UniProtKB/TrEMBL annotation:
Gene3D superfamilies: Farnesyl Diphosphate Synthase (1.10.600.10). Belongs to the NDUFAF6 family. GO terms for biological process: mitochondrial respiratory chain complex I assembly. Keywords: Membrane, Mitochondrion, Mitochondrion inner membrane, Transit peptide. This is NADH dehydrogenase (ubiquinone) complex I, assembly factor 6. PANTHER family: NADH DEHYDROGENASE (UBIQUINONE) COMPLEX I, ASSEMBLY FACTOR 6, PTHR21181. Involved in the assembly of mitochondrial NADH:ubiquinone oxidoreductase complex (complex I) at early stages. May play a role in the biogenesis of complex I subunit MT-ND1.
C-alpha cells in the first residue's frame, strides 16, 4: 500500500501560533486526513513527542502546518530509538529492538509498512517528502553503537555521535521544509553538535544516578577527575573546569551555526528554533559556575515557548 498517495500534510496557510499558550485539546486531531489513515497514529506521535520531548514539541508547533505532521513522525521515531537504551535490561534485547526498528525503516522504503503508529506516519512522510533513508540509518546506527559502550573517549566521539543523531534529524526537517542548501546543512551540522554536547551535560546527573558517565574520558583524564567522583555527584573545581571546557565547545558550535543565518534560505530558521534550549542551558550553567549538579539546571524554562515565538517573529534562531 502506498501511503504517500493518501498522505495529506497540513495546509500552507498561517499556523495558530498562540496555541502554544493554550491547552492543546485540538491536538488530538491536528491534521486533515483521508478516511483510510487512522487518526490514532497521528495522535500517538504527537502525544509521544509532547510527553517525552516537550521542548522539541513546542518547536514543532512553530513549524509551518504543511510540515508539522511529518516533523512529529520524525521526532517520535527519534524518541523510540532513544528509549531503547533506557527500557531494556539486557544489551542483547536492545540490539534486537534496534534491528527491528532498522528493518521497519527498510520495509517503509520497500512499501511494506509495519503496523505501528510511528511507522505508518513515517511511511507517508517519506513518500510525500522523499526523505533520505541514509539519515534514518545514521540515527539508528549511532544509537545502536551507544548500546555497546556507555561512555565516550574523546570530544570528537561526542561530536560524531551528535552529528549522526541530532544533525541527521535536522537534515530530515530541512527536507520536510523543501530546503536543500549547503549552508543550511552546515548550520544544521554545528547546531546538532552543540545540542549533542549540551545533552551530555544536562543528562550527567541522571547518568550518575545509574552509575554511568558520558563526559569524554580525555577531558576527565586531562583534569584528573575519576568517574567515581561524578557518580557520587561530587562537584569540584577540576570538574567545573572540565564542564567549562565541554560547554565552551558546545557554545562554539552554537555560535558558528548562528553566524550562518544571513546566508540561509528563507524559512530555514524554522527548523532550528530549539537552539533556544541550548542557549538557555549554557547561560544557566554559567550562572551556577559550571556545577552540573546544581538543582537549578533541572528546572524547566517557563519562557521557552515565548522565546521561540519571538525568534520566529524575528526570523532568527
Amino acid at each position: 500500500m502506498n501511503l504517500s498517495k493518501q498522505y495529506m500534510p497540513l495546509p500552507k496557510h498561517l499556523s495558530e501560533i498562540m496555541m502554544l499558550f493554550c491547552k492543546h485539546n485540538n491536538l488530538r486531531q491536528p491534521f486533515r486526513l483521508k478516511s483510510t489513515v487512522k487518526c490514532s497514529d497521528i495522535s500517538y506521535c504527537v502525544d509521544l513527542v509532547r510527553k517525552s520531548d516537550y521542548e522539541n514539541y513546542l518547536g514543532t508547533l512553530l513549524l509551518p502546518k504543511s510540515s508539522q505532521r511529518a516533523a512529529f513522525a520524525i521526532r517520535a521515531f527519534n524518541i523510540e530509538l532513544a528509549q531503547v537504551r533506557d527500557t531494556v535490561s539486557e544489551r542483547r534485547i536492545g540490539l534486537m529492538r534496534m534491528q527491528f526498528l532498522k528493518d521497519a525503516m527498510d520495509k517503509i522504503y520497500q512499501s511494506e509498512i509495519p503496523n505501528t503508529p510511528v511507522a505508518t506516519e513515517l511511511a507517508g512522510a517519506c513518500g510525500y517528502y522523499k526523505l533520505s533513508k541514509r539519515w534514518f540509518h545514521r540515527m539508528i546506527d549511532a544509537r545502536t553503537s551507544l548500546l555497546h559502550s556507555d561512555s565516550f573517549n574523546t570530544v570528537k566521539d561526542v561530536e560524531d555521535y551528535a552529528e549522526n543523531v541530532n544533525s541527521s534529524l535536522y537534515y530530515l526537517l530541512l527536507e520536510c521544509l523543501g530546503i536543500k542548501n549547503i549552508h543550511s546543512d552546515h548550520a544544521a551540522s554545528h547546531l546538532g553538535k552543540a545540542q549533542g554536547i549540551v545533552t551530555v551535560l544536562r543528562a550527567s546527573p541522571y547518568h550518575a544516578s545509574v552509575r554511568q558517565v558520558q563526559i569524554p574520558m580525555e577531558i576527565l583524564t586531562k583534569h584528573k577527575i575519576s568517574q567515581e567522583d561524578i557518580i557520587r555527584g561530587k562537584s569540584s573545581q577540576p570538574l567545573k573546569d572540565a564542564v567549562f571546557e565541554l560547554a565552551s565547545t558546545a557554545n562554539l558550535h552554537l555560535t558558528k551555526s548562528r553566524s550562518l543565518m544571513s546566508s540561509l534560505p528563507q524559512g530555514c530558521y524554522l527548523a532550528f528554533l530549539n537552539a533556544c534550549v541550548c542557549d538557555h542551558y549554557l547561560k544557566s550553567l554559567q550562572k551556577v559556575d559550571f556545577n552540573i549538579f546544581d538543582g537549578k539546571l533541572q528546572q524547566k524554562n517557563p519562557l521557552l515557548a515565548y522565546q521561540m515565538f519571538i525568534k520566529k517573529l524575528r526570523r532568527q534562531y
